[in-house]
Prior knowledge:
Helix 4 links the parallel strand 8 and strand 9 (128-133). The chain has eight helices and 15 strands. It is α/β, with parallel strands linked by helices.
Amino acid sequence: RLKVLPGGRLPRYVRVNTLKTTVEDVVDYLKRDGLTYLGQASRLDDLTLKEKQFVKDIHLPELLVLSPKTDFHDHFMYKAGHIILQDKASCLPAYLLNPPPGSHVIDACAAPGNKTSHLAAIMKNKGKLFAFDLDAKRLATMSTLLLRAGVTCQQLANQDFLKLDPDSPQYKDVEYILLDPSCSGSGMVCLRDDASSADQEKTQARLASLASFQLRCLNHALRFPRLKRIVYSTCSIHSQENEDVVAACLQQNPNFRLVPLLSQWPERGLEPLTQCLRASTSKTRTHGFFVALLEKHSEAGNKKQ
Ligand code: SAM
């Protein structure tokens, strides 16, 4: 049974795990649970829902949207891995990378694994999904999450992505990489602190250090010999960790370019990187987020709009 939590400002987003069930089955289940289905959303305002109402999302086909107070943590569908509780913006990276079933994919900074499970669902558990994380504890949490989600195509390793050898024969067929590295987390609504109380100098130093790590990760990822496409994402609102990292990487790797993303998405990367997407509470009803898709020049065409 569903519980109702106090507070909460963002809608409750529920990603249907297509490794275990279908959107239609989850819709039926929720209706039987006493919720009212209002159909497919078409405008941002449709995502402002009253208690017990729900819709299908505007942009992402496997996403349902409920009122902010809906709590699924004790619900059967959550415990059985039929649904994943994931903010809408954080569903963008795997959806946009869209690796076909059978492909070889790296999730470079993967724990706790929500995006890994999304990639596995898109790959229909076919192919190889190498997922790395530096933090053993987070990796253990990820194992549990992936087991619950029915993911079987993964190969997990407690590994520094920066020390992974791109020329190792193991990765010779890797064509897709998802890079969601550590960031300031400044886009997370619950983590936003009062700017006036923040120590500006310390914040700037931390951002510079994160940005340098993120750029190293992105440059490293581009060294995998058969790489076709890479998604770079952060839950930061700072351009230092977003557009600046991507712009520096493109300058250092002229054989890669940005793919224009989702023309109907309401918030773009800052000029001139408007091919990228941004997300925010006011414009997309999500946490703050940034996502860029880079592709190798020779792989032009076949773009997702
Ligand atoms: N993609 C994850 C998801 O959707 O569930 C969230 C990833 S979180 C933003 C960043 C992760 O990068 C952390 O779990 C952190 O331990 C890991 N990390 C940091 N530095 C790393 C490195 N050098 N190599 C691999 N993982 C790293």
